[in-house]
Amino acid sequence: GSSLAVNPGQALGLAGGAISVSGATLRAPAGAVHLTAVAGAGEVPVAPGNGRPTVTQRGDVVIAANSLLDVSDPANLGSGGSVVIRAANLTVDGSEINADNYGAGGGGVIILSAQNRIALADNADVHSFALSTGAVGAAGEVSALCARSGVADRARTAAIAVRPERRGIFA
User: Fold this and answer.
1) Number of CB atoms found within 10 A of residue 50's CB
2) Is 92 helix (H, G, I), strand (E, B) or coil?
3) Where would a tag sit more exposed on the chain, N or C end, judged by fewer CB atoms within 10 A?
4) Cα separations in angstroms, 13 against 64, 70, 121, 129
5) pTM of the prediction?
6) Facing residues of 73 across strands?
7) Which pLDDT band holds residue 166 (cuts at 50, 70, 90)?
8) Mean pLDDT of 108-128
9) Which of 50, 7, 23, 147 is nearest to 15 (CA)?
10) Among 27, 89, 95, 25, residue whose Cα is nearest residue 65
11) Which helix (H) or strand (E) holds 112?
């Protein structure tokens, strides 16, 4: 499959009509992956944190066929980055979204935002675990914001701290 990556701490943003990630890897170690599908006029900020999109009609996002969106940084023992997906309908099918924390800082954040529906299927795996061995980093947060959601076929969403003194948030 195809792969698109940025250096640690950098952002990878894709904005456009309907977005399909199929059999591909998008990687931003301790950085950010932002996907915004649009279906109408408006603006989408290029850099994360530079304002909110003014688009009112969103397009669909499909992440399928063993795709991976990965903002964890095990090579540098870094804290997890962020994944933000904005869509009308979001489908994660047989793929993984990973914001694991290997460092001492805060855990990665995953925000799945859909105007209509979020569907997780076929062993979809969305997680932000705390996996540091000597540091005290915490698990991040996994949030799903939508009118309707569906989890099927052993799909999993979790933010879990492996260290007993830290807590994760499961949403």
Assistant:
1) 7
2) strand
3) N
4) 18, 13, 24, 23
5) 0.85
6) 78
7) very low
8) 89
9) 50
10) 95
11) strand 109-121
Using pLDDT thresholds of 50, 70 and 90, give the confidence band for residue 167. Answer: very low
| CA–CA distance, 54 with 42 (Å, rounded to integer) | 5
Measure the CA–CA gap between 29 and 119, rounded to whole angstroms.
26
DSSP 2-59: -EEE--TT-EEEEEESSEEEES-EEE-TTSEEEEEEBSSS----SSTTS------SB-
Q: Which of 58, 115, 69 is nearest to 92 (CA)?
A: 69
Q: Which two tokens stand for residue 4?
A: 């698109």
CA distances from 103 to 8, 100, 136, 149 (A): 13, 9, 8, 32
- What are the structure tokens assigned to 125, written together? 């795996």
